[in-house]
Amino acid sequence: MTRPTDRRTALRAALGSAAVAVLGGALVGDASRQDPGPSGVLRLATGEPTGLHAAFGHLLSAELEAAYPRLRCRVLTTEASVANIELLRDRRADLALVLTDTARAAAEGTDPFPHPVALRAIGRVYETYLQFAVRADLPVRAVSDLVGHTVWLGAAGSGGAVLGARLLRAAGLSPGSDVEVRHLPMTAVAHAVRAGSVEAVLVVGGVPIPVLSDLDDRPGLRFLPLAGLLPKLGGRYGLAGSGLAEVSLPQGAYRGVGGVATIGVSNLLVCRPDLPSTVADALTRLLVLHAAALVPDHAVGTQFLDVRSLIGTGSIPLHPGAVAAYRSLHG
Questions:
Q1: How distant, in Å, are the alpha carbons of 90, 106, 117, 255, 319 from that of 109?
Q2: pLDDT in tens, 200-242
Q3: Beta carbons within 8 Å of 168's beta carbon, 6+ residues apart
Q4: CA atoms within 13 A on the CB side of 186
Q5: CATH class of the 129-265 domain in this structure
Q6: Which of 16, 91, 157, 163 is deepest in the core (most CB within 10 A)?
Q7: TM segments (predicted)?
Q8: C-alpha 145: how far from its chain's center?
Q9: Element (H, E) at 320
């Protein structure tokens, strides 16, 4: 089996090569600019401290401050997507990492958002996997088999919790009635599963994710197929623009998981429409030119940003400053 470090190194090398191939001389042009770039403090809302959003956010912050010395980026750890959009809405954050599906709900003003929230995208940064796992000693083979069991769906303010409740309903289950739902910090999940107070967990993140790797060793996990529920998750406007798609969990990510058909959801870096264009330009150039440096150590799949797919932000329009930067870089 390919070693995680080797796969991560190969991914970073591929991203760097792709940037050079797609952009040609843009790397040299960017390095030679005399403009010192934007200044000020940016607040970036990410996710739980041990999760993928936070890891990506810290890498983005470090690269941003190195490339633009007059900018400071504060990484805010949060409950993730829903909480992040609320922080943007209330002007307590300037940037946020969110699931595309959650961003669409915010823009439309649908559950869990009572009113539309104006958002703009800097880019589509990576795709995460819905990983629904149960203890291997349970006779559960599908989501519909979870009647009477206790499920962890993530933190209460996360997009994963919202999407998880929709998954349960798509499988014909009523959260809180057919299935007991718990919302705990990710740091408490492993203990709860081993103690038996939680029997199934839904994680939305990169593959593999440390908490599931740990539980896969003890007590052992079985991953449930989710792709069959995809047609029921589109909401009133269907799947277009939701960022949801059928994917397979990579071979070797966990024991016996290869080929399980699940759901992938893209993730966006978003902002309010009033973010200065100079900042949006700087962020966009960073995503394109420093892609290889933005892959967290524990994420070794191919689910990270591709310089060719950054503009695929679904129903969330790109910020005008990002549009100008993409045009400048791509010619």
A1: 15, 5, 7, 40, 20
A2: 999 988 888 888 999 999 999 999 999 999 998 865 555 667 8
A3: 143, 146, 151, 174, 175, 178, 179, 181
A4: 26
A5: alpha beta
A6: 163
A7: none
A8: 27
A9: helix 320-330
